[in-house]
Design a protein that fits this description.
The complex is a heterodimer. Chain A has helices at about 20-50, 55-75, 80-90, 100-120, 135-160, 225-245, 280-290, 300-315, 320-375, 380-390, 455, 460, and strands spanning about 5, 165-170, 175-185, 185-195, 200, 210-215, 220, 255-265, 270, 280, 405-410, 420-425, 440-450. In chain A, helix 1 (about 20-50) runs antiparallel to helix 2 and helix 9 packs antiparallel against helix 10 (about 380-390). By secondary structure, chain A is an alpha/beta fold. By secondary structure, chain B is α+β, with helices and mostly antiparallel strands. Chain B has one domain (about 1-145). Chain B contains four helices and four strands; from the N terminus they run ααααββββ. Chain B has helices at about 1-5, 10-50, 55-60, 70-90; strands at about 95-105, 105-115, 130-140, 140-145. In chain B, helix 2 runs antiparallel to helix 4. The N and C termini of chain B lie far apart (about 60 Å). Classes of the chains: A alpha/beta, B alpha+beta.
């Protein structure tokens, strides 16, 4: 029996049944709501500015409704699909007919995207794993916690005193908690506990299968994931940590870190001879560890150094707090940076639209003045101008309703006469997010054209040409 | 690890900000250049057509309306007059455009070359960008649009 047991899990884990929702779904959901609220605070003013003031109202109401719904529907809502739905609706919804809906959909897309990402994104139910927060998931977590506690007790009882047992260590870049880590003369062992009943098999290609029997005796496939991959990722994390802190252990012969997948459930039928890491039932684990012949045995001082290093690197209970603060900091940074980037993007788009309008307005003024210069009288010149503007403006990408034409035909004459056309155009930026609050820019162009008496026939009428 | 991963978004943004601003600046300066070019072309077209209205009336009357030719002096004066009136007020020129007027018997050709101010390219010591436009008007075959520049 070893008394050198280090418990790195949160205290609730060792105190009997823990509500799964408190361990996983609860905090995760709370984090998701916090992030979604923060994103909503950033997005509502930005999106609403496109259609003030109803844009702000609808966007705020949308965000509020979604945030209130989250505690009710939890993570069972398909946030990923809702994101796609909202984004699609935002694209196809005509904004002019339904002002305010665009900002609301924009905010809904952002909030649901954050909730989806907070819930694990595409990693969620893809592999058949029960959805977080579901009853099956809670039962699975309870079973897992119970099994881990049992394995910890068995190992502590059976391992000799020269071995150190660390339960629930979490390392940076690791794949979640390391259920059990044993350090002793025979080496360093990572144990991944899988408390799962049923027939469990590992194919030669490394794929795991778990088959359970239903109440009617019919077999069905149940989730198991890839325990070997999880162990291997944690082996890499431990190796990286030790190699950087204790490089002497990895000189020839190097320390070899062993992985084990342990199945403590009494109704487990195991067929895992093809597994990449040794997989066994709990009653075989201690003997496997103690009888292992390592290529580099650890001396007692080395055992202590390895344990100290891993505990310091794992930062024990402070690590999750650090992760949370980092995550929150990253979110704040993104919240600060995103409006500027989005503003630059849509600002550039708005500038392009103004430039296009300015170029088009110059052309329209040119065409209008030229048409007027071919007129036979001032009144005819004005009619020609109007007709020409109506004809060419749509082709140049201008909205005819926003085009204003002003003219000066006071100098219209056959001899040295001239006409002037001034075109003003209000550039509509209202459909662009972020820059929608900018006052409507107006572009203007004037063109003066000398009356062409010979082409219009005006000169002949005046008797200039015989 | 914590120190390494903190403030990454801000660092990336700070590094990328000059790129973003450059893109926005190029969009603005490019837009101004495009609009200036179009405006200059419009002035060149108008000037060429103004010159093309000045025919040699004596020759026209003498030929019974069949020999249509320009009066070179009047055509040049008309073109020059148009440019003097319009060119200075159209755009904010870094360098007032130089003008070249070629008058043939049936054609007036106008070539304008100027330089417009830049807004963002000044950062890299490009204070102005040259623009050029040319147009011709033909008395016989009608008015032609600018042929580039």
């Amino acid at each position: 029996m070893t008394t050198r047991v280090v418990e790195c899990r949160r205290p609730t884990v060792g105190l009997g049944p823990v509500p799964a929702s408190a361990r996983e779904a609860g905090p995760r959901r709370a984090v998701g709501v916090k992030r979604a609220a923060l994103v909503a605070v950033v997005l509502v003013p930005l999106a609403g500015a496109a259609e003030p003031p109803q844009g702000w109202v609808l966007a705020a109401l949308t965000a509020l409704t979604m945030l209130l719904l989250v505690p009710i529907v939890g993570e069972r809502a398909p946030w990923g699909w809702l994101t796609v739905l909202f984004a699609g609706a935002a694209f196809v919804t005509p904004r002019r007919q339904l002002p305010g809906l665009g900002p609301a959909l924009f905010v809904a897309t952002g909030v649901s995207l954050v909730l989806w990402l907070a819930g694990g994104g595409a990693r969620g139910p893809r592999d058949g794993r029960p959805r977080p927060g579901s009853r099956e998931r809670q039962a699975q977590l309870l079973m897992g916690l119970s099994g881990e506690r049992h394995v910890g007790q068995v190992l502590a009882r059976e391992l000799p005193q020269e071995y150190v047992l660390i339960n629930g260590l979490k390392l940076p870049r690791g794949a979640g908690d390391i259920d059990h880590l044993v350090v002793g003369p025979s080496g360093v062992f990572l144990l991944e506990t899988k408390t799962m009943a049923g027939r469990i098999a590992c194919d030669p290609d490394g794929r795991w299968h778990r088959t359970r029997l239903g109440r009617a005796g019919t077999p069905y496939a149940a989730y198991i994931g890839d325990p070997a991959a999880q162990v291997q990722r944690n082996i890499f994390a431990v190796r990286d940590c030790l190699r950087s802190q204790l490089p002497g252990l990895f000189r020839r012969p190097p320390l070899w870190i062993e992985g084990l997948v342990v199945f403590p459930h009494p109704r487990t039928e195991l067929d895992a001879e093809h597994c990449r890491v040794p997989a066994m039932r709990l009653d075989q684990a201690t003997s496997h560890i103690c009888l292992h012949v390592p290529q580099r045995p650890l001396q007692p001082p080395e055992v202590d150094r390895v344990v100290d290093t891993l505990l310091v690197e794992g930062q024990d209970r402070t690590y999750p707090a650090v992760r949370r603060s980092q995550s929150a900091q990253a979110l704040v940074e993104v919240a600060l940076v995103l409006p500027i980037v989005v503003g630059l993007l849509f600002g550039t788009l708005a500038i392009s639209r103004v430039v296009q309008a300015q170029t088009a307005v110059v052309a329209v003024a040119h065409e209008a003045a030229r048409a007027a210069a071919m007129g036979t009288s001032p009144a005819d010149a004005v009619v020609r101008m109007r007709q020409r503007v109506d004809l060419v403006a749509p082709g140049l990408g201008l909205d005819p309703r926003a085009v204003a034409l002003d003219w000066d035909v006071s100098a219209f004459a056959a001899e040295r006469g001239q006409v002037s056309a001034t075109v003003t155009y209000r550039v509509d930026l209202g459909d662009l997010p972020v820059v929608g609050w900018v006052p409507v820019p107006t572009v203007r162009a004037q063109h003066v054209e000398w009356v062409d008496p010979f082409r219009s026939g005006l000169a002949r009428l005046d008797g200039v040409v015989p | 690890m914590a120190r390494r991963s903190s403030a990454q978004a801000l660092v990336w943004f700070t590094l990328a900000l000059p790129l973003f601003i450059s893109i926005a600046g190029l969009a603005i300066d490019g837009g101004v250049l495009l609009a200036s070019r179009r405006q200059l072309q419009s002035v060149a077209d108008g000037a060429a057509r103004a010159g093309a209205t000045r025919l040699d009336l004596d020759r026209l009357r003498g030929s019974g309306g069949t020999d249509v030719q320009l009066d070179p002096t009047l055509a040049r004066d008309a073109t020059r007059s148009y440019l003097a009136e319009r060119l200075a007020r159209e755009l904010d020129w870094q360098v007032l455009p130089t003008t070249r007027i070629d008058v043939a018997t049936r054609r007036v050709r106008v070539t304008l070359q100027g330089a417009v101010h830049t807004a963002f390219l000044r950062v890299v010591h490009i204070d102005s960008v040259p623009v050029q436009a040319s147009a011709f008007a033909d008395v016989q075959y009608g008015i032609h649009a600018g042929d580039g520049g």
